[in-house]
């Protein structure tokens, strides 16, 4: 099972290096906040695992503000629901695209999460896909997108500012391409202005008539902090 990871900085000034077939690009600027780093775009692509299995990846913002690529992990699927973490204060909304296929068909769940240096999940985008196949076609399919974010006890923290989700086909399809997007803003103890941090998550799933699938994830961070880590995967 192959995987591909790439990291691209949104800054116009960048340093590009080739590391074992993985392209890493990042940039730094004068940090107005100690240990705060430039924004980046992180991308991960994974083939969906076999039924009952999970595959995941992780990228951490290192002490020098450069993304550190972790190894791709494979193992048994968890018993957890589609959302994959809990925090002391969490808010969630759900948007369904098309009607999901029957439970007897193929199932796929994906997660796309951003954690801080204290292992608290800040923002997350989750997908749950179902599809049935017959005679070389996807007969019915649908994906549900869910967003979650962390709030601080004094009515501050992260908030969802926008979200979209869609499937390009729902019945009698050669294949189905689903995508979900969620944008989160932060205003709280680490930035009372609300102008510094912004996380935008993107998740893409392809469902095929032979029952296989693939997952691709992106996250765009307006600014980051040393120790932040992005976790993504599907099962």
Spell out the key features of this protein.
17-stranded mixed β-sheet, 63% strand, single chain, disordered N terminus, elongated, mainly beta, 235 residues
Short description:
With 235 residues, this protein is mainly β. It is built from no helices and 17 strands. Helices cover 0% and strands 63% of the residues.
List the helices and strands and how they pair.
Elements: E1 4-9, E2 15-19, E3 22-26, E4 36-47, E5 53-61, E6 67-69, E7 73-76, E8 90-96, E9 106-115, E10 121-134, E11 137-152, E12 156-167, E13 171-173, E14 175-187, E15 198-208, E16 213-225, E17 229-234
Parallel strand pairs: 1-3
Antiparallel strand pairs: 1-4, 2-3, 4-16, 5-6, 5-7, 5-17, 8-11, 9-10, 9-17, 10-11, 11-12, 11-13, 12-14, 14-15, 15-16
